[in-house]
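Entry for the shared binder. Reason: the reviewer on the internal report wants the predicted structure included alongside the sequence.
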Amino acid sequence: MTNMQELYKNPVLYYIVLPLLALTWPAFMWFKYIPAVGEEREAWKGYVQDANSLIIEMLTLDPERLSYSDSKGPSVEFEYETAVDKVARSLRMDKQVEFRPSAKSKGKQSAEVSLNNINIIQCSQFLSTLQMHWDGLQCTRLSLTNKKTTKDRWDVTMSFIYYF
């Protein structure tokens, strides 16, 4: 106990040890964290440049995407028949596309879309394109039925709900 009391009375503790401990935090920040933040910032600059080039490429390939997000008002109303037909034509799907609309309720509209004799890539492109263009659209059910006669041929049934 006397050693601790002597330690507190020793001026070396207050004039040398405590200031050195206080200086370790800024030194640690200067040598450890600031260079790491600079490296991380440079990495994010690369990510931003890559993202900008991808956005420019997407907009040059499909400039209509801007009009989808701008059409928030009542001038453009979502209709399953138009949306499904537009996406199927843009993907050059000459397959049979059917849809069965369900009843409209307050704030949402639902329908079922069937795609016959397509492959998995066409199915995923159709689904992602449809949901990318209309952000209020959610796929609630996806059913795949394999065609036994050929490889990678499916009958697909999707249920959608569009929230407006």
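Summary line for the report: Residues 78-163 form a domain with the Alpha-Beta Plaits fold (CATH 3.30.70.60).
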